[in-house]
Each structure stands twice: as C-alpha cells, then as structure tokens.
Give the backbone structure.
Amino acid sequence: MNNITKVFTERRILVTLLLGFSSGLPLALSGSTLQAWYTQSGLSLKALGFMGLAGLPYTYKFLWAPILDRFVPPFLGRRRGWILIFQGLLCITLMSMSFFSPGTQPSTLFALACLLAFFSASQDIAVDAYRTEILHTQERTLGASMVVSGYRVAMLISGGMALIMADHFGFSVTYFFMGSLLGISVIATFLGPNPDSVIVPRTLRESLVVPFLEFLSRPKSLLILLFVICYELGNAFASSLISPFLMRKLQMSLTEIGTLVKFSGFMGVILGSLLAGVLAMRWNIYRAMLVFGIFQALGNLGYFALLWTGPNYWAVGSVIFLDNFTGGMGQAALVGYLMSLCNPKFTAFQYATLSSLGVLGRVYIGPLAGYIAESYGWESYFISSLILSIPGLVLLFFVRGGMEKISEAPKVKDAELAVG
C-alpha cells in the first residue's frame, strides 16, 4: 500500500510513470498498428515481417547517445531539454503520417515510420538516462515497475484504442490524434525535477570511449551483453506478427482486436507490473529474472492455443491478458537490471547500449518470423517462440554471479576522465 501511495506522492516516481507512457506510445505506431494498416492494404506476411526493420533505430541508438551525454540544450537542462525536443519531433512526425496511405504512398509512409522510430529511440536515450539519474537506489525496483506500467499502457492505447479508432474513423485520423495525445506527455517533462549533480563529459571521447571500456572491464561483461540480447528474444518473436495473426487467421475486426487489447491487455499490464514490483523487492534480481522469464516464455503459448479455439472472445481476451501480464513482469525485471548496470557518470551511453541490445531481437527477428509463419504455418511460428526463449534462461544461470556483485563493478577514476 505504501508503494502505491508513493506513486502519487513522490514526484520522481510519478514523472517516471508519465515518461514511461511517453516512451511507449510511439512504439506500436511504428510497429503493430502500422502493420495492421498495411495488412488492411493486402501486404504479404513476408513483407509484413520485413516492416519490423522500421525499428532499426532502437538497436543503434547507442551510436548517437554520446551526443546527448555531451551536449546540453539551452533550456530545462541536459536530460529534460533533449526529452522536450524529441517529444516535439514525435508529435510532428505522427501528424505527418496521417496525410499518407499504404495503398498509394507505401514507401513514403514507411520512411516516416523509420523517422518516427529514430525520434522515439532518441527520446528513450534521454528518458532512460534521466530516470536512472533521478531515482534513488531504493526506488529503482518500484521505478522499473512504473516505467513498464506507463510504457505498456501507452502501447495498449496506440495498439488497442488506435485500432478501434481506425475501424471507425480511419488510420489517418487515428495517427493525427495519437500525435496530439503524445503532446500531453510534455507536461511530465516540465514537472520533472533536475537530477542531482552529475558530471557532464567534456569531450565526445569521454562520453563514448571511456564508458565503453569501463563496462568491458567488468567480470563477464560480454556474457552479460549476450544475455541482454537473448532474454526477451522469444517474446519479441511471438509478438512480431500478432496483428496479422488475429486479423487473418482468426478473422477478427480492428474493433474486436482493439477492444480486447484495450481491456484485457490493460488489466494484464497493471496487475503484472505491480506484482513484479512487489515480488522483485522481496527477491534478489536473479530469482526475479528467472521466474519472470519463465512466465514470459510460457505466456506466449497462449496464442498457440487459439489455433484450436478460433475467434472465441473469452479465449482471445484471456490470452491477451496473459501475454501482457507475463510480458510486463519480464520487462520490469529487465529494466531494473539494466538500470543497476549503469555507471552514473555514463548513464545515457551505457543504458542506450544495453537497451539497444535488448531490442535487437525484436527488430531483426521480424523477417524470420514472417518467413516461418508463411512457409511453415502458425503452429511452427509459436513453437519457435518458445524455443527462442531458452537461450536467455540458460545464459541467466551463467551471469548470476555478476548480478550478485553489481555493486562491486569497477568504477572509472576521475583521472581516467581527464585523459583527452
């Protein structure tokens, strides 16, 4: 109860929740909702799978993260200033997409989707660094749950409510409205406190080379990077073609999908994230990631069961609830782990690098998912998602020792920062 009260009384936690919403809203609009728009225009499963490449900026955002570490906008400080800039660009891009159609200008719309992903990934760099810097150590478990809650609720709005709107008013009106809705997130940017004193790198080398070497100097650093890539790989594979699966295989309308996603998914996110926060505060990080990772892998199999139930609304609603419930738990555990890995001196670059690896599978797995679904059927597709969940759980065992010694990770000495 105290944790729930703290969400509304502690400004740092509340802002974390609202900025999680700001980060999550654009994702479906360059992913599953955009897929539904193109699916409606008759695109093949293989082509829809390749559309996942619009998310490439999420995997390469570490390349320009040092710029956001090094330079400070002339307003609102280093983190909030960059957040505000990218929020404005996201609003403009979403509204611009409303003037195009996949039936007549597919390439232009896809190019705008890539631009949307770029601005969204850039906002994530600033938001992730800001969140890691303002949350106190004892608040990070609760903060991670709030991030996932805000993030996934936003995804439900842009992936659930958006489909209902599109079915009644069209995708163009929907994208324009979503651009306006994102503008509300600006309030959180102005509400946020400034981080405690943080050293700003004096050169790009200090914001790129030194933090990279600092991370590699830690025990099992390469194994940790591989683990981050694999932990959500199965979940990313399973979710890459959910919209086409529901629309084509189960013959569900946009309104039906959107309604189920909106209500079942919303409840799953809220309950899953809150439970993850409560349990993670009682467990060590290894146990949380193991249990939540297993739940996440098994949750995807619910879609496999739908191959036999057909478009039964109770069954589909239950599966969507389970997917969001278990997925929220796994994501909360990963977010908390990534925050704990960051050296406060290099938050933007290190978190951007780690989170880029975390979404690597989600982006590059799309073409493979489309190929398997079209060539071998939906049964093979969902079984493959379970198989792809195994490497992350196996690697978790090997990086366990590193999780228990996070606080002992070597820190860069100030003298090293002075080396130009």
About this structure: DSSP finds 23 helices and no strands in the chain. The domain at 2-417 is CATH 1.20.1250.20 (Growth Hormone; Chain: A;). The chain has a mean pLDDT of 78.
